[in-house]
Amino acid sequence: MKNVVLFLILSLLTTIAFGQQKVIPAQDPTAIGNTFFKALLDEDDKVLGTIVSDDLDVISFDGQSIDGDLFVQNVAGNIFIVETGVVMDAVTRQYNNDAAVMTGTWQAKGSIDGQGFDTTLAFSVVSAKQAGVWKIVNVQFTPVSQ
Fold first, then answer.
1. CATH number, domain containing residue 77
2. Is residue 94 part of a domain?
3. What pTM was estimated for this model as a whole?
4. How far is CA 32 from the centre of its chain?
């Protein structure tokens, strides 16, 4: 009986310990940029929350600035929905081993607060190392004229 109780307690503690671990994407600015777009497509606010900085600033399609917390909440609350999204022509330039800019185009379809979009956007994703971990600090989307 003691062994069963001990086993249950250890199982519970193990579950709690592993359940609290954060998902940390590959520590590379290209991988973190790709993880960002995949999280948008998957509507995965948990992953987004782990890869963006506390002071993230997103410049949306219309030039409006959105802070990181609101952006992640919009993904979690199905206000910003991406149905399809394909990153093309992505290039990452790294500076001094602690800053990087990923640029390219993103062909995306979805909706923002019920308003549909189906467009190609030029993007820049700026990443910086914070406490030795890559975080996204700025994202800008600009519609491409077609």
1. 3.10.450.50
2. yes
3. 0.80
4. 8
Whether 143 contacts 123, CB under 8 Å: no
**How many domains does the structure of the chain reveal?**
1
Q: Could you tell me the end-to-end alpha-carbon distance of the chain, in angstroms, rounded to an integer?
A: 72
Note whether residue 73 is domain-resident.
Answer: yes
**107, 109, 115, 120: CA torsion to nearest 10:** 10
Q: Print pLDDT tens along the chain (146 aa).
A: 554 443 444 444 444 444 444 445 457 899 999 999 999 999 999 999 999 999 999 998 888 999 999 999 999 999 999 999 999 999 999 999 999 999 999 999 999 999 999 999 999 999 999 999 999 999 999 999 76
Name the pairing type of β-strands 80-95 and 65-67.
unpaired
Which of 74-113 are b and which e, b meaning 16 or more Cβ less than 10 Å from the residue's Cβ?
bbeeeebbbeeeebeebebeeeeeeebbbbbbbebebeee
